[in-house]
Amino acid sequence: MIPITPKRVALAVWLLENIEKEVSIYQTTKESRILNYHATHEAFKDFASAGYIQKTKAERYRVTDAPALVHQIALAFPFRLKPIVGFFLGDAMIGKMQRLSSIEPGTVFTLFAGAELLSPYVRTIMVHAYVPAKSIETQKDRLLQSGGRRAELNEADTFLLPTDHAFVFEFAKRIGSYRIPPMGVLLADLESYGGLAQEQAGRIMREWLSRPSAL
User: Fold this and answer.
1) What is the model's pLDDT at position 212?
2) pLDDT higher than 70, residue 138
3) Range of 136's domain?
4) In terms of pTM, does the model score above 0.90?
5) Is 55 helix (H, G, I), strand (E, B) or coil?
6) Quick one: which of 113, 151, 189, 194 has the fewest CB in 10 Å?
7) Strand partners, 178
8) Are residues 150 and 195 in the same domain?
9) Is 89 found in the same domain as 59?
10) Whose CA is closest to 63, among 108, 96, 15, 30?
11) Is residue 206 part of a domain?
């Protein structure tokens, strides 16, 4: 087991966002803005020793085991251990998503809501969304003002995940009017949630790896 720090998780996420490329340590350091050159070099050595990435003849690196990198992200930040604030809004999935996005433009939809935008499979009314931790109190107040109510997690249909991890937002993808997390985060969330979410992760993973530049 190699050391996985939050910044190395962010680096793994960045590598998965650039899965179709061969990248140098310098390029990665400059473009990802996560670790300094030395720390990126050490991370690459560990990732390569674990078989997640491979050094090419051109002295560059490419991802060789995306599922293993996703699994590392899932182990480092398992979905069920993330802070969650529950609400009951009562709308259909898209209605909830529109409501959340209008309150906080930085909202990033994950789990079934994010997967639905990318590859519809599981029908549910539940919506899970990352929001910047600094805006969580404002978002809670506005949801209450709009007619929503706080709910225990077993009664909620809307789940806010406040986070300070900037890579969730910086590497997010836009699909239509909404944003989803970078692929490594979305897949790790689905995998670590289990059940139908894990099954959906497998479907999206296969689609993604068959045409990485398209998703």
Assistant:
1) 53
2) yes
3) 79-214
4) yes
5) strand
6) 194
7) 175
8) yes
9) no
10) 15
11) yes
pLDDT at 97: 94
Q: β-pairing, 173-175 with 178-180?
A: antiparallel
* Percent of the chain's residues with pLDDT above 90: 86
Please tell me the distance from the alpha carbon of residue 187 to that of residue 23, in angstroms, as a whole number.
22
Do 174 and 86 share a domain, yes or no? yes
* Cα separation, 79 vs 23, whole angstroms: 29
Q: How far apart are the first and last CA of the chain?
A: 29
- Strand ranges for 83-202 from DSSP E: 85-88, 108-110, 127-132, 149-150, 158-163, 173-175, 178-180
User: CB of 106 within 8 A of CB of 169?
Assistant: yes
Helix (DSSP H) and strand (DSSP E) numbers for the chain: 10, 9
Helix (H, G, I), strand (E, B) or coil at 129: strand
Residue with tokens 């182990």: 75
Q: Work out the angle between the directed axes of helices 183-193 and 195-210 (0-180°, nearest 10).
A: 150
Question: Is 125 part of a structural domain of the chain?
Answer: yes
- pLDDT tens-digit profile of 163-198? 999 999 999 999 999 999 999 999 999 999 999 999
Question: What is the average pLDDT across 41-52?
Answer: 96
3-state secondary structure of 29: helix
73, 10 in Cβ contact below 8 A? no
CB 69 within 8 A of CB 15: yes
Quote the pLDDT of residue 213. Answer: 55
Specify whether 72 is located in the same domain as 102. no
* Predicted local distance difference test score (pLDDT) of residue 144: 95
The answer to the question of residue 1 being in a domain is no
Across all residues in the chain, what is the average pLDDT?
Answer: 93
Decide if 10 is inside a domain.
yes
